Amino acid sequence: MSSGALPSRSLPAGLRRGLTFWRRSIQARVVASTVVLSAVVVSIVGWFLLQQTREGLLDHRVTAVVAEANNETTEARTRLVAAPGTDIDSASQQRDLVEPIIQRGATRGFSVVLAGPVGDTGGRIEDGGAESTPGLDTSSVPASLEAHFDELAPTAWTYTRIRSADAEGVTRVQPGIVVGSQVKLPSDGATYTLYYLFPLDEEQETLALVTRALLTAAILLLVLVAGMTWLVTRQVVTPIRMARRVAERLAAGQLQERLQVSGEDDLARLATSFNQMASNLQRQIRQLEELSRVQRRFVSDVSHELRTPLTTVRMASDVLHDARHGFDPAAGRAAELLQTELDRFEMLLVDLLEISRFDAGAAVLEAEDVNLVDVAHRVVETTRALADQRGVGVVVRTPDYPCLAEADVRRVERIVRNLVTNAIDHAETSGRGAEIVVQVAGDEHSAAIAVRDYGVGLAPGEAAMVFNRFWRADPARARTSGGTGLGLSISLEDTHLHGGWLQAWGRPGQGAQFRLTLPRRAGVPLRQSPLPLVPVDAEETVS
Amino acid sequence: MTQPAGPPAENAWKGRILVVDDDASLAEMLTIVLRQEGFDSRMCTRGDLAMDEFRDYKPDLVLLDLMLPGKDGIDVCKEIRAESGVPIVMLTAKGDTVDVVVGLESGADDYVVKPFKPKELVARIRARVRRYDTPAQESLSIGDLTIDVAGHSVTRRGVQISLTPLEFDLLVCLARKPWQVFTREVLLEQVWGYRHAADTRLVNVHVQRLRSKVEHDPENPEIVVTVRGVGYKAGNA
C-alpha cells in the first residue's frame, strides 16, 4: 500500500487512476500476469515452430535446386562434348551454351549467369563479358560465391537476394538460392562458371502463411487464457467484493446487512462466518443502545420526578420568605436559610442532570459563529454583582477585532461564567490580589479566553485535578458563591463537545489561570492557542 | 415585578387561570401564589377532565403540565387550541429541545421549565394577559392582509383569518414597522415581554405557525420574511 503511494505523486491523472486500479484489483493483476506468462511461452513455442518449418522448407528446396542445376550442367557438358571443337570461336560457343539454358530457365522460373573464364585474368562478372538472363542484375551473384569459383571447384550454393528488372523496368528484389557449377569450353579450353539463380518466392509465401496461422493461433490462445483467468478469478473475487461492500455498510451503521450464502464451498463458509460475526455485533450494539436508552430514560424520569416536588417546595419557600417579617426572628431566619439552601439544591440538581446528560451522550451542539469578545463582556456584566460583593475588580482585556469561533453560545457562556465566578471565588479580598483579568484573543484557526486570578494558586499536580467532579483545592476553605463542585467538570465536558481545550495553570501563592481555546471551525483539530497558558506576568518570577 | 402584590380587592381579579397539573401539591401551591398575585385560578389534575374544566371555567390563560394522567398534555394543548386562542403556558420538567418544540408546535405560546421561580412564572403570565388592557383604534396592512388591531381581526379580501392572540401580536409587531428587521431577541422582548434573553426557539416555532396560517405558500413566505443571520421582517409583497 505504502510503496504504491509513493510514485503516484507526480504522475498524470489518467496514469494515476490506472495505477490505483492495478493496486486495488486482484482480478486485473492475476489476469495480466497469466497473460504475460502465456505470451512468453507461446512466443517461444511459436518461434521454435517457425524455425523448424523454415529449415525444412529450405533444405527441401536446396536439394531440389542443386539437383536441377547439376542436371542442367551435365546436359550442357554433354552438348559441348558433342559440338565440333575447332571451327567455332569461344564467344559464339558461350552463347550456344547459355541460350538453351536461359530459355529453359525462363519457362521454369530460374535465371542464369555464365561467367568466366576462370584463371589469372580474373573473369569476374563485373568485368563484363558475362552472359545472363535478360533483365537480371548480375550483381545478384554474391562475391563470396564468385571467389569460391576463382579456381576449379565442384558445385556450390548459397543464399542471395535476386535483383531483376522486368519488361517495364521495375526492379524486383526477392530471396533466392544461387548454385554455381563449372564447365570447360572446348573452343578455348578455359573453364567457365554457370550460376543458376532460383527464387524462393513460394517458400516465402508458405512461411508467411505459417507465420500468420501461428500468430492467429497465439492470439486466440492468449484471449482464451485471459478470458478463463478472468472468469475463474471473478468467481473468487465477486464474493470478496460483496463481503467488502456489506462490511462497509455494516460499518456505516446498517446493521441488518448480510451476505448471501449459496452452496457449501469455502466462500459460502466465509459468508456464513461473516454473517455470524455481523449478527453478534448487531446484538451487542442493540444491547448497548438499549442500555443507553434506558439510562437516558432514567435521567429524564428522575429529572421529572425531582423537579415537580422541588417546584412546590420552591414556591412554598418563596411564600414563607416573602412573609418572613411577620414571623418571630428564629422562624424568619429559618425561612431565609430555606430559601438560600434551596437555591443551592436547585443548582446542584441542574448540574447533576447536565452531567448525566453528558454521560448518556445526549448533549447536542448547536453551533454558530460566536464572538468571544462579546461573550467575555456579557459574562463580566452578569457576574459584576458577585464581584462587587466580594470586593474583586474585574479587568477585561479584549482586542479591537472580533474573536470568532463556531460554538454553542449557551455552552460557551456557561464555561466562561464558571471560570469567572471560580476566579472571583479564589481571588483575595483586598490588595493587588483582589483583581482578576479576563483576556481574549483569536486568530484564523482558533479563539481563546484566559481568566487569571491572583489568589492562593494551585499546588503542583492540582492543575489536572481541578476538573474532577466535586474536587476542592482546600476542603477547609469556605464556600462563598455556593458552587456545586461540578462547574469545572461541566465546563470541561462542554469544551470537549466543541473539540476545544480547557486547561489550568497555577503556582502556590501566584494565583491561577484557566484558558479556554475553541477551534474557529467546529470539528477542526486545534494545534495551538492564541493565548499562552502560563501568564506573562508569572513567567519571570518562576524562572 | 419584584414588588409582592397585596391581597386583591374583591371582584378585582386580574384574570382567571386554569392550572392543569397532575401533582396536587404543586397545583395547590400554584393557586396560592397566583391568588397572592391577584389572579383567580382553578386546578385540574387529570388530562381527560381538562377540556370540561376549560369550557366550564373559560380562563384567560392555561398553565399546562405536559405529563398528565388520562390524556397527554400535548393532546390537551391541541384540543384547546382547536376551539380557542387563549394563551397556553406549558410547565415542563424537561428542558430538552424536542419536548419544548413539540409543545410549542402543538399550540402553546410559551413554556417554563421546572423548577421555576414563582416570580418568573408570574411575570410570564402577566406578559400573556396584559394585552387586554390596551385596546387602540388602529388599522394596519401587511402584504394582502388587513389588520384591525382594536377589533383583533385579520382579513384577506374580506375573509377572516383566525389567529391566536400571540400570533396576532407577532403579526402586528412586524406590520407596525415594515421597514425594520426584527431580531429574535427584540421580538421576544416586544411580543413575549421578556427583558432578558430567553429561548429564541419560541420565535422560530411561532413564526412557522403564523406562516402556516397567513402565507399563500408557507414554503416560500412573502408576508413574514426571514432575513438570514438577522431575524424577520414584514414582506413587501
From TrEMBL, chain A:
Bilayer-spanning residue ranges: 26-50, 213-232
Which terms in the Gene Ontology molecular function aspect does this entry carry?
A: kinase activity
The enzyme class is: transferase
State the CDD domains in the record.
HAMP, HATPase, HisKA
In this chain the HAMP domain maps to: 234-286
- State the source organism's domain of life: Bacteria
Looking at the keywords, is Transferase present?
A: yes
Task: Give all residue intervals belonging to the Histidine kinase domain.
Answer: 301-522
Q: Can you state which reaction this protein catalyses?
A: ATP + protein L-histidine = ADP + protein N-phospho-L-histidine
Keyword terms, alphabetized: Kinase, Membrane, Phosphoprotein, Transferase, Transmembrane, Transmembrane helix, Two-component regulatory system
Subcellular localization, as worded in the UniProt entry: Cell membrane
| Family matches, as Pfam families | HAMP, HATPase_c, HisKA
Name the EC number(s): 2.7.13.3
Q: Which InterPro entries match?
A: HAMP_dom, HATPase_C_sf, HATPase_dom, His_kinase_dom, HisK_dim/P_dom, HisK_dim/P_sf, MtrAB_MtrB, Sig_transdc_His_kin-like_C
Please tell me whether the keyword Transmembrane helix is annotated for this protein: yes
Q: Which NCBIfam families match?
A: MtrAB_MtrB
**Protein's UniProt name:** Sensor histidine kinase MtrB
Automatic annotation (TrEMBL), chain B:
According to the entry, every stretch annotated as the OmpR/PhoB-type domain falls at 137-236
Q: By its UniProt entry, which InterPro entries does this protein fall under?
A: CheY-like_superfamily, MtrA_REC, MtrAB_MtrA, OmpR/PhoB-type_DNA-bd, Sig_transdc_resp-reg_receiver, WalR-like, WH-like_DNA-bd_sf
User: Mind telling me what this protein is named?
Assistant: DNA-binding response regulator MtrA
For this protein, the record's SUPFAM superfamilies field holds: CheY-like
Q: Which keywords label this protein?
A: DNA-binding, Phosphoprotein, Transcription, Transcription regulation, Two-component regulatory system
The protein's superkingdom reads Bacteria
Show where the Response regulatory domain sits. Answer: 16-129
Which ranges does the entry annotate as DNA-binding region?
A: 137-236
Species name: Nocardioides koreensis
